[in-house]
Amino acid sequence: MTEYFNEIKKIQYEGSDSKDDFSFKFYNPEQIVLGKTMKEHLPFAMAWWHNLCNCGTDIFGTGTADKTFGAVPGTMEHARAKVDVGFEMMEKLGIEYFCFHDADLVPEAADIKETNRRLDEITDYILEKMKETGIKCMWGTANLTNNPRYMSGAASSNSADVFCFAAAQVKKTLDLTVKLGGKGYVFWGGREGYETLLNTDVKFEQENIANLMRMAVEYGRKIGFTGDFYIEPKPKEPMKHQYDFDAATAIGFLRQYGLDKDFKLNIEANHATLAGHTFQHDLRISAINGMLGSIDANQGDLFLGWDTDHFSSDVYETTLCMYEVLKAGGLTGGLNFDAKQRRQSNTKEDMFLAFILAMDTFALGLLKAAKIIEDGRIDNFIKEKYKSYENGIGAEIVAKKVKLEALSAYAENLGAPALPGSGRQEMLESILNTILFG
Q1: Which residues are involved in binding Mg(2+) 1 (predicted)?
Q2: 246 is in an annotated binding site
Q3: Rounded-to-integer distance, Cα 196 and Cα 30, Å
């Protein structure tokens, strides 16, 4: 088979002194970090939609990158070309997983039966490539956003016919995910939200969303899907308010509707910051609730109010991300590069350079997060901060052995309590800087 990137060889680890742009400076897949190889800690996945479909189009202009790959867009020939290019890239980058939407794989036909036939055809071809290369499917999801029928949402639509069409897409994408051996299935908010409460029945819409998710779980288990279902929190854009606003909101929704036994969260960095949180925050909230599943690895632009999906370059952010992942014991899913090159980075070479940047950034974040844990000062400080709950009245509070009246009496005998110990934020930030740059 003819290589599309024939001028680019397999990307190798050369170390931080290397001046070769087409080499890894920090991502050394077989390096042992805290008892596991780097590639085990970092199960990277290629996002089919951005890498093989996005050509740099934005709300102000048409695309700048050629993603035709020598075929005519909108044809099955083009769909097969994307498979060839995607697997060539993953092999050369050492990426072992991919993620997909149904709409990424084939052009949608006017008849859903024909669309499904096309999906069967292309996934047969993908399976051949998977067997040849050993590359695996991380997760699948249905695109319930782009088509005009979803202008008022999918499961939350006021149209029962649209709800049924969304259900048909979910069913087929679950079939494909099982066929490809996917580890997970994702519901991402798309247009599940509202612009104004003047025309919205929030309770009705949320119950319908939960109903579709419940049906998906039932069907998935019936056809042998044993992986996790995921919600991907998203606060806004394209809707003014989306129902899965952040990790805490999504967890509350899952528990309210009895879905928490089958679902975890797929946390996206850019979505967390759009919600007014840090990436670390939504990871921590997911982890302490036993729902940290998978990650869409990207970053946003804090000066822009929408989902810009940059390839990760911020080592502070990836260090704190990997610190949360390590403390949580790892991911059931992986690190999916839901990211796109900047509009000006429009060449074939830029496709590789973007992945090299992000893979190195997460590898460096992993190394630094491991050092934070091995150093121990931050963890020890946190433990010491709450020491007053280890004995005496504090221990009784934690053990739930004391009532409000007893606490009130204790406070009366105490007089004025001393101020809590210093939070030492600046000292801890200095420790972090020392570990990152010392």
Answers
A1: 232, 268, 296, 338
A2: no
A3: 52
Which of left, alpha, beta for 412 (phi over 0: left; psi -120 to 50: alpha)? alpha
**Dist. CA 230–CA 186, nearest whole Å:** 5
User: Residue 1: is its pLDDT beyond 70?
Assistant: no
Of 293, 296, 295, 229, the C-alpha closest to 258 is 229
- Alpha carbon 263 to its chain centroid, in Å, reads 14
Q: What b/e string do you get for 3-20 counting C-beta neighbours within 10 Å, with b at 16 or more?
A: ebeeebeebebeeeeeee
Catalytic entry in 101, 277, 281, 310: 101
Could you count the other beta carbons within 10 Å of the beta carbon of residue 419? 6
Report pLDDT digits (tens) over 210-230.
999 999 999 999 999 999 999
Domain residue spans of the chain: 12-375, 378-437
268 is in an annotated binding site: yes
Q: What is the DSSP string of 135-184?
A: -EEEEEE---SSSGGGBTBSTT-S-HHHHHHHHHHHHHHHHHHHHTT-SE
pLDDT for 12 equals 98
Cβ pair 225, 185 in contact under 8 A? yes
| pLDDT per residue as tens digits for the range 367-386 | 999 999 999 999 999 999 99
Buried b / exposed e over 83-109, threshold 16 CB at 10 Å, is bbbbbbbbbbbbbbbbbbbbbbbbebe
Identify whether 238 is preceded by a cis peptide bond (ω within 30 of 0).
yes
Residue 128 counted as an annotated binding residue: no
**261-313 pLDDT per residue, tens:** 999 999 999 999 999 999 999 999 999 999 999 999 999 998 988 899 999 99
Backbone angles phi and psi of 77, in degrees to 5: -60, -40
Q: Is 120 annotated as a binding residue?
A: no
pTM of the predicted protein model: 0.96
Please determine, looking at this structure, whether the domain spanning 12-375 carries the CATH number 3.20.20.150.
yes
Annotation says 101 is catalytic = yes
Active-site annotation holds for 201: no
Give per-residue pLDDT as tens, 316-355: 999 999 999 999 999 999 999 999 999 999 999 999 999 9
